[in-house]
Amino acid sequence: MLKAKHNFIIHPFFKWYADIIIKRHFGTVRIIGGIEEKNLPILLISNHISWWDGFWAMYINIKMLHRKFHFMMLEEQLRKFWFFNYTGGFSVSKKSKSIIETLHYTAELLTNNENMVLIFPQGEIQSQHNQHFQFEKGLERILNEKADKIQIMFLANLVDYFSNRKPGIYFHLQENSMPVSDIAGLQHQYNHFYAQSVEKQKQFNV
Questions:
Q1: Strand order in the sheet with 89-92
Q2: 79: CATH
Q3: What is the pTM for the complete model shown?
Q4: Of 63, 13, 10, 66, which Cα lies nearest the Cα of 169?
Q5: Which of 82, 124, 154, 187 is the most exposed place for a label (fewest CB within 10 A)?
Q6: For residue 110, what are the β-bridge partners?
Q7: Please, what are the averages of pLDDT over each run of 10 residues along the chain (206 residues)?
Protein backbone atom coordinates (compact mmCIF):
# COMPACT_ATOMS: atom_id res chain seq x y z
CA MET A 1 0.00 0.00 0.00
CA LEU A 2 0.97 3.64 -0.39
CA LYS A 3 1.23 5.51 2.91
CA ALA A 4 0.32 9.18 3.22
CA LYS A 5 2.93 11.89 2.86
CA HIS A 6 2.74 15.64 3.37
CA ASN A 7 5.13 17.36 1.00
CA PHE A 8 6.16 20.81 2.22
CA ILE A 9 5.21 22.34 -1.16
CA ILE A 10 2.35 20.19 -2.49
CA HIS A 11 0.33 19.96 0.73
CA PRO A 12 0.21 23.73 1.45
CA PHE A 13 -0.58 24.32 -2.23
CA PHE A 14 -3.65 22.06 -2.07
CA LYS A 15 -4.84 23.73 1.13
CA TRP A 16 -4.66 27.08 -0.67
CA TYR A 17 -6.15 25.62 -3.87
CA ALA A 18 -9.12 24.03 -2.06
CA ASP A 19 -10.08 27.37 -0.52
CA ILE A 20 -9.73 29.21 -3.85
CA ILE A 21 -11.67 26.82 -6.11
CA ILE A 22 -14.53 26.35 -3.64
CA LYS A 23 -15.06 30.09 -3.32
CA ARG A 24 -14.77 30.47 -7.09
CA HIS A 25 -17.27 27.76 -8.06
CA PHE A 26 -19.84 28.08 -5.28
CA GLY A 27 -21.91 31.17 -4.61
CA THR A 28 -22.65 30.14 -1.03
CA VAL A 29 -20.33 28.19 1.26
CA ARG A 30 -21.92 27.46 4.62
CA ILE A 31 -20.98 25.26 7.58
CA ILE A 32 -23.92 24.16 9.75
CA GLY A 33 -22.83 22.74 13.10
CA GLY A 34 -19.48 22.63 14.83
CA ILE A 35 -17.05 20.68 16.97
CA GLU A 36 -16.12 20.60 20.63
CA GLU A 37 -12.34 20.50 20.82
CA LYS A 38 -11.25 17.42 22.80
CA ASN A 39 -7.63 17.14 21.68
CA LEU A 40 -8.30 13.75 20.08
CA PRO A 41 -7.67 12.34 16.60
CA ILE A 42 -10.70 12.79 14.35
CA LEU A 43 -12.40 10.29 12.08
CA LEU A 44 -14.53 12.25 9.60
CA ILE A 45 -17.34 10.16 8.10
CA SER A 46 -18.84 11.75 5.00
CA ASN A 47 -21.19 11.07 2.13
CA HIS A 48 -19.48 10.66 -1.24
CA ILE A 49 -21.35 12.52 -3.98
CA SER A 50 -18.75 13.97 -6.34
CA TRP A 51 -15.20 14.79 -7.39
CA TRP A 52 -15.36 17.70 -4.94
CA ASP A 53 -15.64 15.67 -1.74
CA GLY A 54 -11.95 15.59 -0.83
CA PHE A 55 -11.58 19.33 -1.38
CA TRP A 56 -14.69 19.99 0.72
CA ALA A 57 -13.32 17.88 3.58
CA MET A 58 -9.99 19.70 3.36
CA TYR A 59 -11.88 23.01 3.57
CA ILE A 60 -13.73 21.78 6.68
CA ASN A 61 -10.42 20.74 8.21
CA ILE A 62 -8.89 24.16 7.53
CA LYS A 63 -11.85 26.06 8.95
CA MET A 64 -12.99 23.82 11.82
CA LEU A 65 -10.98 20.71 12.65
CA HIS A 66 -7.37 21.92 12.42
CA ARG A 67 -5.73 18.51 12.10
CA LYS A 68 -3.19 16.88 9.77
CA PHE A 69 -5.32 15.78 6.81
CA HIS A 70 -5.44 12.12 5.68
CA PHE A 71 -7.82 10.35 3.32
CA MET A 72 -8.25 6.86 1.88
CA MET A 73 -8.18 6.50 -1.92
CA LEU A 74 -8.31 3.54 -4.33
CA GLU A 75 -4.75 2.53 -5.14
CA GLU A 76 -5.15 2.64 -8.92
CA GLN A 77 -6.52 6.18 -8.65
CA LEU A 78 -3.81 7.27 -6.23
CA ARG A 79 -1.09 5.96 -8.54
CA LYS A 80 -2.69 7.82 -11.44
CA PHE A 81 -3.10 11.06 -9.48
CA TRP A 82 0.16 10.62 -7.54
CA PHE A 83 0.21 14.16 -6.18
CA PHE A 84 -2.65 13.33 -3.79
CA ASN A 85 -0.25 10.98 -2.00
CA TYR A 86 1.77 14.07 -1.02
CA THR A 87 -1.18 15.82 0.57
CA GLY A 88 -2.39 13.04 2.87
CA GLY A 89 -3.77 10.39 0.50
CA PHE A 90 -3.12 6.71 1.26
CA SER A 91 -4.15 3.69 -0.76
CA VAL A 92 -6.66 0.88 -0.42
CA SER A 93 -7.09 -2.14 -2.71
CA LYS A 94 -10.44 -3.70 -1.96
CA LYS A 95 -9.77 -7.02 -3.70
CA SER A 96 -6.30 -7.48 -2.24
CA LYS A 97 -5.02 -8.86 1.05
CA SER A 98 -3.32 -5.49 1.52
CA ILE A 99 -6.67 -4.10 2.64
CA ILE A 100 -5.85 -5.45 6.13
CA GLU A 101 -2.65 -3.42 6.09
CA THR A 102 -4.61 -0.33 5.04
CA LEU A 103 -7.14 -0.74 7.85
CA HIS A 104 -4.38 -1.24 10.41
CA TYR A 105 -2.56 1.83 9.05
CA THR A 106 -5.78 3.87 9.33
CA ALA A 107 -6.21 2.81 12.95
CA GLU A 108 -2.56 3.68 13.57
CA LEU A 109 -3.09 7.19 12.18
CA LEU A 110 -5.92 7.59 14.65
CA THR A 111 -3.58 7.13 17.61
CA ASN A 112 -2.08 10.59 16.96
CA ASN A 113 -4.08 13.52 18.34
CA GLU A 114 -2.79 15.75 15.54
CA ASN A 115 -4.38 13.61 12.80
CA MET A 116 -7.73 13.40 11.07
CA VAL A 117 -8.81 10.72 8.62
CA LEU A 118 -11.57 11.15 6.04
CA ILE A 119 -13.59 8.04 5.15
CA PHE A 120 -16.51 7.52 2.77
CA PRO A 121 -18.14 4.50 4.45
CA GLN A 122 -20.39 3.55 1.51
CA GLY A 123 -17.24 3.07 -0.61
CA GLU A 124 -18.49 4.66 -3.84
CA ILE A 125 -19.97 7.85 -5.26
CA GLN A 126 -23.74 8.01 -4.82
CA SER A 127 -26.42 10.64 -5.36
CA GLN A 128 -26.93 13.12 -2.54
CA HIS A 129 -30.59 12.08 -2.70
CA ASN A 130 -29.66 8.65 -1.36
CA GLN A 131 -30.62 8.72 2.32
CA HIS A 132 -29.75 5.18 3.30
CA PHE A 133 -26.07 4.43 3.80
CA GLN A 134 -24.71 0.92 4.13
CA PHE A 135 -21.32 1.04 5.84
CA GLU A 136 -18.59 -1.30 4.60
CA LYS A 137 -17.14 -3.77 7.10
CA GLY A 138 -13.65 -2.28 7.14
CA LEU A 139 -14.81 0.63 9.28
CA GLU A 140 -15.72 -1.76 12.10
CA ARG A 141 -12.18 -3.12 12.21
CA ILE A 142 -10.81 0.41 12.54
CA LEU A 143 -13.24 1.23 15.32
CA ASN A 144 -12.50 -1.97 17.23
CA GLU A 145 -8.83 -1.03 17.38
CA LYS A 146 -9.26 2.61 18.39
CA ALA A 147 -12.86 2.93 19.55
CA ASP A 148 -12.19 4.71 22.87
CA LYS A 149 -9.51 7.12 21.64
CA ILE A 150 -11.02 8.99 18.72
CA GLN A 151 -13.55 11.72 18.05
CA ILE A 152 -16.00 10.81 15.29
CA MET A 153 -17.52 13.60 13.23
CA PHE A 154 -20.36 13.21 10.71
CA LEU A 155 -20.35 15.33 7.56
CA ALA A 156 -23.17 15.68 5.02
CA ASN A 157 -22.34 17.63 1.86
CA LEU A 158 -25.47 19.02 0.19
CA VAL A 159 -25.63 21.18 -2.94
CA ASP A 160 -28.47 23.57 -3.81
CA TYR A 161 -28.91 26.46 -6.23
CA PHE A 162 -32.08 28.08 -4.89
CA SER A 163 -32.37 31.40 -6.81
CA ASN A 164 -28.66 31.80 -7.51
CA ARG A 165 -26.71 31.30 -10.71
CA LYS A 166 -23.94 29.44 -8.90
CA PRO A 167 -24.66 26.44 -6.67
CA GLY A 168 -24.28 26.68 -2.93
CA ILE A 169 -22.47 24.04 -0.90
CA TYR A 170 -23.78 23.36 2.59
CA PHE A 171 -21.65 21.38 5.05
CA HIS A 172 -23.69 19.81 7.85
CA LEU A 173 -21.31 18.81 10.65
CA GLN A 174 -22.07 16.94 13.87
CA GLU A 175 -20.21 14.86 16.42
CA ASN A 176 -21.33 11.27 16.81
CA SER A 177 -22.97 10.44 20.14
CA MET A 178 -23.20 6.64 19.81
CA PRO A 179 -20.72 4.08 21.22
CA VAL A 180 -18.05 4.00 18.53
CA SER A 181 -17.49 0.23 18.68
CA ASP A 182 -21.08 -0.43 17.58
CA ILE A 183 -20.95 -0.31 13.76
CA ALA A 184 -24.68 -1.00 13.37
CA GLY A 185 -25.49 1.81 15.75
CA LEU A 186 -23.00 4.10 14.03
CA GLN A 187 -24.60 3.41 10.66
CA HIS A 188 -28.05 4.08 12.08
CA GLN A 189 -26.84 7.29 13.70
CA TYR A 190 -25.29 8.56 10.45
CA ASN A 191 -28.47 7.78 8.50
CA HIS A 192 -30.49 9.68 11.11
CA PHE A 193 -28.03 12.59 10.99
CA TYR A 194 -28.21 12.71 7.19
CA ALA A 195 -32.02 12.73 7.18
CA GLN A 196 -31.99 15.59 9.70
CA SER A 197 -29.47 17.47 7.54
CA VAL A 198 -31.76 17.17 4.52
CA GLU A 199 -34.67 18.53 6.57
CA LYS A 200 -32.55 21.50 7.70
CA GLN A 201 -31.53 22.06 4.09
CA LYS A 202 -35.15 22.47 3.07
CA GLN A 203 -35.44 25.47 5.37
CA PHE A 204 -32.80 27.48 3.56
CA ASN A 205 -33.94 29.88 0.83
CA VAL A 206 -30.82 31.84 -0.09
A1: 28-33, 168-175, 151-160, 42-46, 115-119, 68-74, 89-92
A2: 3.40.1130.10
A3: 0.94
A4: 63
A5: 124
A6: none
A7: 96 96 96 94 96 96 96 93 96 85 94 95 88 87 79 96 94 88 86 96 80
Nearest to 128 by CA among 165, 162, 170, 164: 170
> Is 2 domain-assigned?
no
50 burial level (CB within 10 Å; 0-12, 13-18, 19+): middle
CA distance 54 to 108: 21
For residue 168, being part of any structural domain is answered with: yes
DSSP H stretches of helix in the chain: 10-25, 53-60, 75-80, 98-109, 138-146, 183-201
| Sign of CA pseudo-dihedral 145, 134, 75, 67 | negative
Does residue 160 contact residue 171 with C-beta atoms inside 8 Å? no
Is residue 204 within 8 A of residue 32, CB to CB? The reply is no
Q: Residue 93: which region, alpha, beta or left (left: phi > 0; alpha: psi -120 to 50)?
A: beta
Q: How many H helices and E strands in the chain?
A: 6, 7
What is the extent of the structural domain holding 78? 10-201
Residue at 168: amino acid letter = G
Give the C-alpha separation, 26 to 34, whole Å: 21
